[in-house]
Design a protein that fits this description.
This protein is mostly helical. It has one domain (14-171, 215-499). It is built from 20 helices and 4 strands. The strands form 2 sheets. The chain has a two-stranded antiparallel ribbon. It is globular, with a radius of gyration of 24 Å.
């Protein structure tokens, strides 16, 4: 749908123009479809990392869609003079928080882990609201060489998830414990385990006569499942090559739909949980119980939010340029404060940190429709979708290998976006930028290539140190200040934001 900008009534800026109901609904649905695949990816990743039940993962998806809608309404409509950029912005869960949240989930899984994550999110959201005015003035510390590197490592980190989905699960699922062989080994040492111990003597240390026996998991990397993932990937690539505009923008979503149809035809997708789910339900706060607040986790998520708010600043400036509506420090602070409020709302409603979706910013430029009420309509649609449990149950029922084919594209595009931003950086006249990029990516890869590198450090620091995204962000900012100082370049930030259309 490529719609030309309508002439706004006299005295009304196109951003504030109220369009006919039918048209604004259609355009709002277009925005929802463009962001939908990205919106559902995060609760699927984090929910499964927490080892939650399918019903609980479906709850996360519903909560995510509901909160997306609510925060979008606040950002686009405005709420008092302190919240809302009042531009056509769609809000969604940020990929930047995935790495730290997965690290938190690995440290503590289940409902307790979820409560700890939500506590960290709420704490970071509150801090973000307080520091929003300051963050609107910190763009100088995040030039394209920094933001491009961070976005690239986000995509690289997420690619591991996409590959894992295509294989049928994370790498640790490649093998299962060989239970019969383990029983045999246990029987061999049973006499030593049951032998009497003299009074006052220490019990002898008894070990298995070898490592825990493992056997290959036949479901991991099964060729038929990988074939479905490959079919999804090929379908998306065909759409990208042979379609334009709206269809190309939703190619990932259409690829997932095609993969579901193929998986269902092969008997690999089942709809039992969809049938049992309610048609309508209200998203309730604190569904997992009251959150817990760990200082290190709050600090970790706060660092994520600083990166998110800097990225949002660039997005808002780019959107101001696209729509022709100038914004100042007060408007920027209100928009960033909404990122913080949205994150608090996310934690309260059992979901995750929020930011403006860059692909929707690109869609504003493609359609030429600048009215913020289009995103208001999109927010209302997301609210409704969040209260349809059958929709969430359907998403949760999608086989991971179907998501794998789409994930390779979706997450790979995030990395490619970072690379595209980095391509605008001046390396010829400033070779120091090469060192910033090289070392920052190197730090970001540490948790990926050496996942146990923190084993001799305090356990409370693991969520902070096991996130390659945070390591990259800290390293890139520090190295940029060391080599380049802190020079403000609003134009470069706007161009970088315009390039970031994939995450």
């Amino acid at each position: 749908m490529n719609t030309a900008t309508a002439t706004a009534p006299s005295g009304v800026h196109p951003v504030d123009e109220k369009l006919p109901l039918g048209r604004v609904t259609a355009l709002g649905l277009q925005h929802v479809l463009v962001m939908y695949a990205g919106a559902i990816a995060v609760p699927l990743i984090v929910g499964r990392a927490l080892k939650l039940s399918p019903e609980q993962v479906a709850m996360l998806i519903s909560a995510d869609l509901f909160a997306c809608g609510l925060v979008t309404l606040i950002q686009s409509l405005g709420f008092t003079k302190y919240f809302g950029i009042k531009l056509p912005v769609m809000m969604g869960v940020t990929f930047a928080a995935v790495g730290p949240m997965v690290a938190m989930a690995n440290a503590q899984s289940g409902v307790e882990g979820a409560r700890a994550i939500f506590g960290a999110i709420i704490g970071a959201g509150v801090i973000s609201m307080l520091i929003a005015p300051l963050m609107s003035r910190m763009l100088r510390f995040f030039p394209p060489v920094v933001t491009g590197t961070i976005i690239a490592i986000i995509g690289i980190s997420l690619m591991r998830v996409g590959v894992g989905w295509a294989m049928g699960g994370p790498a640790f699922m490649a093998q299962n414990v060989d239970v019969p062989r383990l029983v045999e080994m246990t029987n061999l040492i049973e006499p030593a385990l049951t032998a009497p111990v003299a009074p006052g003597a220490a019990a002898p240390v008894v070990k298995l006569p070898g490592p825990i026996p493992m056997t290959d998991n036949p479901a991991y990397a099964a060729l038929d499942n990988m074939a479905v993932a490959a079919a999804v990937l090929v379908f998306i690539l065909l759409l990208v090559k042979y379609t334009k505009g709206f269809l190309a923008n939703i190619s990932v979503l259409l690829g997932i739909v095609a993969g579901c149809i193929l998986a269902a035809a092969l008997g690999k997708m089942h709809f039992d949980k969809v049938g049992k789910a309610h048609w309508f339900d209200v998203v309730t706060p604190f569904a997992f119980g009251m959150p817990t607040f760990d200082p290190v986790m709050v600090l970790t998520m706060t660092l994520v939010m600083i990166v998110v708010m800097i990225e949002s600043t660039g997005m808002f400036l780019a959107l101001s340029d696209i729509t022709g509506k100038k914004i100042g420090q007060k408007e920027l602070a209100a928009g960033l404060r909404t990122d913080g409020l949205g994150t608090v709302i996310g934690g309260v409603f059992n979901t995750f940190p929020y930011t403006s979706f860059s692909q929707n910013v690109g869609l504003v430029g493609v359609t030429g429709v600048r009215s913020r009420y289009v995103c208001v309509a999109g927010g209302i649609i997301m609210l409704v979708l969040g209260m349809l449990p059958k929709m969430a149950a359907f998403v949760e029922s999608i086989p991971v290998f179907v998501l794998g084919g789409a994930g390779l594209v979706m997450f790979g595009m995030v990395a490619a976006t970072g690379i595209r931003i980095l391509s605008t950086v001046d390396y010829k006249h400033n070779r120091n930028n090469l060192y910033i990029v090289a070392l920052s990516i190197g730090f970001g890869l540490i948790p990926l290539v050496a996942p146990r590198w923190t084993q001799h450090m305090a356990h409370s620091l693991h969520p902070l140190l096991e996130s390659g995204i945070l390591l990259t962000a800290v390293a890139a900012v520090a190295l940029n200040i060391f080599f380049n100082g802190a020079r403000a370049d609003e134009g470069a930030a706007i161009e970088a934001a315009k390039a970031a259309e994939a995450h």
